[in-house]
Amino acid sequence: MDNAKLIRNESVEESDTLSGWLSISKPLMTAEEFIFLLPHLISINAIEETENFLRQAGAQDCEGAVLWIAEREVDSFRVQRVIAPRQSASRWHFDVPLEERIRIAMTLREEEVVLLQVHSHPEEAFHSPTDDRKAMVDRQWALSIVVPNFCRDGMRDLNKLSAYALRGPLDWVQLSSVQLQRLLVIQ
Predict the structure, then answer these.
(1) Pick from 135, 171, 138: nearest CA to 146
(2) What is the pTM of this model?
């Protein structure tokens, strides 16, 4: 994994960040939209690297985030590596500076794409308005996966995760558990 430094940021107040978030829901992805998504082939190693980083951040009582970098195959995407970008974080948010996003974009090979982001929450898995605005992925149909409980239980039980696809600018739709299980192929 391309490792980066996690900087603990305690400047965000819990009451400022959680107010009303849990009541916000996203529309569900339709079957017509789901056909735009190709299967995502992920190795156990990529899952383990992701789990390890999210758990390390959680041990500091912080959210954590990683990017899955993939190459397009004929009828799928295959995750090639996991990047943990330099980020500041607290229990209620993470932030990856623009300079770090640009640095990562400049390291991508021509055949690579930032397939999705995975980040942790301290408790429930949901996509907050801040997650909507500060997502590191900006490609249409790119995914944002949220792992509950700072990834203490891992992320292999896909039913415990929440996944969202970027339909358009700041327009996220939630995948059902069935859709997520069809999409993510752990090898």
Answers:
(1) 135
(2) 0.89
Confidence category of residue 25, pLDDT binned at 50, 70, 90: confident
Domain 6-10+25-186 has CATH 3.40.140.10: yes
pLDDT in tens, 109-139: 999 999 999 999 999 999 999 999 999 999 9
**SS3 letters for 26-66?**
CCECCHHHHCCCCCEEECHHHHHHHHHHHHHHHHCCCCCEE
**What percent of the chain has a predicted confidence (pLDDT) above 70?**
87
- C-beta of residue 14 within 8 angstroms of C-beta of residue 160: no
Q: d(Cα 183, Cα 4) in Å, to the nearest integer?
A: 28
Cβ contact 133:156 at 8 Å? no
Report domain extents, the chain.
6-10+25-186
